Amino acid sequence: STSLPEYFVVPSSLADQDLKLFSYSFIGRRMPLWSWNHPNGSALVRMANIKDVLQQRRIDQRICNAITRSHPLRSDVYKSDLDKCLPNIQEIQAAHIKLKQLCVNEPFDETEEKWLSSLENTHWLEYIR
C-alpha cells in the first residue's frame, strides 16, 4: 500500500505470508495498523474494510485472534465501525467552511444566542470533540 508507512507494528503471531495474502483483501491494501498503545496493554488498531464479503469473517477472526494473543491479559478485541459513528472528510470540510463563514464573513451584529445557535449548526464543535 502506498498510503501506509514503510514500517508498522503487527502481531507476531501473523506470518508474513498471511499478511501478504490478507493485504489483497483490504480496500487500498491497507492492512491493520497499530496506531496507539496504552500502558495497560490496550491498543488502537485501524483497519480498512475487507473487500471480499465471503472472506471477511475468516480474515477478521484471524487478525482479531492475533491481536488478542498479543495483549498481555489476553483481553478480547472490541471493534467499532468508525464509518458509522464519525463524520467523513467531506462533512468535516463543510463544517469548517461554515465555521469560517460564521467567524470571518458574517458581521457580529447578531445576538449572542443567535450566534451560538449558528455556531452549533456548523457541527464543527461536535466533530472536533
TrEMBL record:
Q: Which GO terms describe its cellular component?
A: cytoplasm; membrane
Q: Where are the transmembrane segments?
A: none
Do you know which InterPro entries this protein is assigned to?
A: Myotubularin (IPR030564), Myotubularin-like_Pase_dom (IPR010569), Prot-tyrosine_phosphatase-like (IPR029021)
Q: Where does substrate bind?
A: N88, I89
Example GO biological process: phosphatidylinositol dephosphorylation
Q: Where is the Myotubularin phosphatase domain?
A: 1-129
Q: Which protein family is it in?
A: Belongs to the protein-tyrosine phosphatase family. Non-receptor class myotubularin subfamily.
Q: What is this protein called?
A: MTMRA protein
Record gene name = Mtmr10
